[in-house]
Design goal:
mainly alpha
Amino acid sequence: MSTHNQPKTENWLDIFTVVGILVTGVFVLAVGLLALQTETLQSFFALDSVHIWWYITRAAGLMGYLLFWLSTVWGFAVGSKIFDSFLERVFTFDFHEHLSLLSLGFLILHVLVLLVEKVEPLSLAEILVPFISAYRPFWTGIGIISFYLTILVTVTFYIRKWISMKTFRTIHYLSVAAYFGSLLHSVYAGTDTTLTWVQWMYGGTTLITVFFMAYWGILLWMRKTETSAA
């Protein structure tokens, strides 16, 4: 059978990405509309003000964190070759790249909305320069640095053919620091940390990340040990 009639991996990935964005958008919109009318949901999501931009930046921040977490865990899984027995290597790499782009998109939305919302407005300088914000300056600064590291790591996907694999991997290791920085920023600067379900989310994602990171690190050490012995 000719392979020309079969959908390419990239096409399926594009479809998955678009559908994911649409489903996420519809879900957030539906929850927002219901929460404005339901006291229980208002309490659950802490939607007790009238500032829609504040809702948007909170939702974008949480979604950006979750996508960044998934991209980080997926990266460890790819490095550990967990998917190699049932997924094509090309697909796992492309999916990792798309997750990074999606998370970066939501993080950019989170940052831009902070310029226009009125609850905790930040100036352009406070958003771009670490540790000068009037709002929790240290943890906001950690978030800004993590954001810059995320951009750097994401850019390496597109300059990979111009840099060595060693350089690519070295820069990619910064994504671990970026993830834990974003976690600390979310926990200590995020206004949703007081919500129980958000605390469980941060705790669960942290444990999963530590597990995959440890598994990846052990495999990497074993491979180096075997190489040295040979």
